[in-house]
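Data deposition worksheet. Section B asks for the primary sequence of the deposited chain exactly as it was used as input, without tags or linkers unless they were present during the calculation. Section C holds the resulting structure in token form. Section D is free text for depositor observations; keep each observation to a single sentence. Incomplete worksheets are returned to the depositor.
Section A, Depositor: J.P.
Section B:
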Amino acid sequence: MNAQGQTFCGVEGWDPAGRYDVVVVGIPSSAGSLAGSRACDGPALVRRVSAVLAHRSPGTSGWFDLERDRTLCRGLRIADAGDVGPDAGDEDRPNATLAARLERIRRTCRLLVVLSGDDSWTYEVMATQRGRLLHLDAHEDRNPYQTGALNHANVIGRLLDDQRSLLVGQWGRRGLSPEPPQDCGRHLALRSEAAASAFAAEEGTELHIALDVDVVDPREMSSVTCPLPGGPTLASVEALCRSAAGLQTLSLSEFAPRGDPRSLVEAYALVQLLLRVVDATVMRE
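Section C:
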């Protein structure tokens, strides 16, 4: 649970000795943001809004989706591991302590769902992983990396340097760049929704999804750190995530609420997306 004692959708708290289908964990930090982001408040608001879906007692009965006329996540054991972050005084980035904590949680579940602040924490989330990373983001995040300066604008570049067993496919990037993208063999620019779907649905290797919510057009998702016009709809992003095969990690970042009613609406939309993706991917296994 978070500092306010709330768990995602009222699920049970995480037990290190337990075995789960899904574990939710928060990283409520904007320490890697260069833009004065409120993304550190995103995980708490997502949990708070999800409280309307809490059952009287935590269980495996699932949630009824009125739009789809079916119950989601029935029979799944889901837990919330609360918030994690570097210890006081241990602010070095990349942070090995945080990566180790996430790995301990990951070993207890089939799918790890991360509610992150800024998307620089994608590095620690992926530090021990291999396989494929589907990076859904309006920005490339491959600015030059300098020691001690891991941030939301260079996190993918650092991952590509350090994680030689990781193949990154990015969909949704747009806008302007100081120079043409320097794609390499392990960083694929997925230039169409069909290409992104094929990358997500490929079987045989582990898949991880890093969803920076600014990939969505700001007409639908305005509570983000660095909005860019012209993005896909939330429905198309959801459909893409639901098509994922072998999903091990779903990390959601850069939801930066402003404290207005629209932020509440957008937080609830993200709760729906998370439950639908969990249902589609974990229940299919």
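Section D:
Residues 8-282 form a domain with the Arginase; Chain A fold (CATH 3.40.800.10).
The chain has a mean pLDDT of 93.
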